[in-house]
Design goal:
The structure holds two protein chains of two kinds. By secondary structure, chain A is mainly β. Chain A has strands at 4-6, 11-14, 19-25, 32-38, 45-50, 54-58, 61-66, 71-76, 85-92, 100-102, 106-111. In chain A, strand 9 (85-92) and strand 10 form a beta hairpin. In chain B, 39% of the residues are buried. In chain B, the strands form two sheets. In chain B, strands 2, 4, 5, 6, 9, 10 and 11 form a seven-stranded mixed sheet that branches. Chain B has a four-stranded antiparallel sheet with strand order 1-3-8-7, with no helix packed on it. By secondary structure, chain B is an all-beta fold. The chains are: A mainly beta, B mainly beta.
Chain lengths: 112, 115
Amino acid sequence: QKEVEQNSGPLSVPEGAIASLNCTYSDRGSQSFFWYRQYSGKSPELIMSIYSNGDKEDGRFTAQLNKASQYVSLLIRDSQPSDSATYLCAVNVGGSQGNLIFGKGTKLSVKP
Amino acid sequence: DAGVTQSPTHLIKTRGQQVTLRCSPKSGHDTVSWYQQALGQGPQFIFQYYEEEERQRGNFPDRFSGHQFPNYSSELNVNALLLGDSALYLCASSFKGTGMGETQYFGPGTRLLVL
């Protein structure tokens, strides 16, 4: 059974702080990793994709991938109250024809 | 550039009924995947359509079926509805030509309530 694990939270950080969201996955053959943001009552919105070990930065967001440890993380710098949402980690299984396996999501709350 | 669209936005059905949900992919995309998201859970993969055929299927019963049309739009059909089918149904579109695990973009979803 291929699984993606996330801490459900809630994770609470003050405005301006760094939020760190973590995810582990079970399928060692996975090659594509995604972070989605989901506001309450809305659908998931893509934030980042990462395919290679190391860091990938996009604005205030940095995704980190360590395939040896089967670990993906998302850092949000200068967190804003508008970042308050559930963050979903997704792993593409089965290569380019695969489907996405999602974690249950981590709920982030950024306090003003 | 139109994103992924889904209809209807909300739906109320009773147990035993049948429902059809519709999805139009993002412009330039050729693959449609369907997911079910229960409250407080991550989306669960139902199936994926490419070239009008079901290519992959998750752990869902045969009551869940689908179709993809030549214009890449797709339908999800659920027969003999159960209370447990109440969920947010998400359509995601992607382009299969990239070679890597294609990035999936989600539509706004259809919220189904079964009474």
